User: What shape does this take?
Amino acid sequence: MPASNEAAVPSRPPATEADAPAVPARRRGLGERLGESKYPLISLLAIGAMLLLWAFVTMVLGVSARVLPSPPEFFAQLHKLLENGYAGQPLRVHIGWSLLRAMTGFTLGVALAIPVGLLMGYSRAINAALQPIFGFFRPIPPIAFIPLMIMWFGIGELSKILLIFAASFNYTVLNSAAGMRSVPVQLVRAGVNLGLTRRQLFTDVMLPAAMPSILTGVKTSAAVSWAILVAAELIAAQAGVGFIIMDAGTFFRISDVFIGIIIVGAIGLVIELLISRIERRLLHWQGKG
Amino acid sequence: MGTIVLEGVTKIYPATVRDASDVTAVENVDFKISDCEIVCLVGPSGCGKSTVLNMIAGFEQPSAGRITVGSTPVSGAGPDRMVVFQSPALFGWMTVYENIVFGPKKQGVPRARYQAEAKRFIEAVGLGDFASNYPYQLSGGMRQRVQIARALVNRPEVLLMDEPFGALDFQTRLLMQELLLKVWSEFRPTIMFITHDVDEAIFLGDRVYVMSRRPGRLKEQVDVPFPKPRSMSMLTDPAFISLKERVLQSIKEELGETT
Assistant: This one.
């Protein structure tokens, strides 16, 4: 903990004019001149390089369009899909179905996992009862349950949503329990000292203190939900992004396969960005210190 | 009002997986801290100083003996005995102001009243400009100021301080010691202050209690005859030095075999 003086951390020393001339003028490199803005630039350049490599491999080296479509072929097909949809349904319907399934399973899973996890972290008895069960199922890849789910609940929506629910539950419950357990004793004692009731202690001290860990779980659950959804749709679905990938693969429509993959990736990215943003807003108080 | 009385207080921790037999942390401690007095508790590490504090605070129950604060026996934690922890146990998601008013607010004190009180204590600990900052934006010394204000706003009869300045650098610690004496002269709480730092103990204390090594017993009481207000110049006074020698000698005897 830095405590060398009584000055507040946020008030940075003002950049004085006097600082600059002390260093003899010299040519500053490009990186230095760009400052912080060079990092997004590097990212953009890397993406650009990848696209160029793609164009080079397909258009110059002449890799067959049956293996990897060239950029023009890809974008032409994307345009076609956006206009005509896939398998008789517009793309947004496919995406909508996928998001609906993922969101339903994820939301239900997280909504149940947070209270259960908090209780596990709060009470050692509850933890002792539930931990072995969840601990056993956690390392099993959720995909392993797909055949079972289909046998029990058919190939309809229920089996997919249940699968996502279970996966999402599993990760958030673990982190919520861990978050609750790791609330510092001092913090709880500070609350007790202030005369808080048990209920106030739970809602006003322990829950916010456990929040960083809970949100880590929610973030993992979101990523896992999306991944499981695609796997579930690969096997049995009439619509959805996973369905597009599987169906297009069956009929060697390689461009469509890639389009499906890219949609999955793009949506996954958006989900992650969205949750990171919520996280930053909720946990701003963690700061850098 | 804020008199603390310990009679035959003993704390025994039952055997656990790690400790095969029962551990006696504190044994048969009797002492009295008078109203408005500052008493510093020193002793070798692990001698049960913090256990004594935790029992007075009501976080832990004595295995035997009685603890009375004011005229009531201690039966649990409460805002009449506020603790200032070594690691600043602030609520990180609350601003300085929110941390300070949290207790009274939850107790149902009317807003107008706790608002005015909070303002007063924020000023008293010199954090006027930082009321809306978050703890992570503050230095270690400032975090301890918040803890002190958060404790005082509850108008405790007793302030229990568990090595509150132990993690601060030397200069900040001196500033905080002066601040504490200033705050004390304004609000007059009874203070029990745990420290490893003998200078700190003598500078702050009306009396210094030395505890023996585990099982902790009260070994010696040293009166500090310097009047308040005190200033830093006291630290070089020959009378101060000889008191310091006496306390150090007493602690050293306890370190003898174990280190």
About this structure: Residues 36 and 133 of chain A are 48 Å apart (CA to CA). Chain A touches chain B at residues 1-10, 184, 186-187, 189-190, 192-196, 200, 204-205, 208-209, 211, 284-289 (CB under 8 Å). The radius of gyration of chain A is 26 Å.
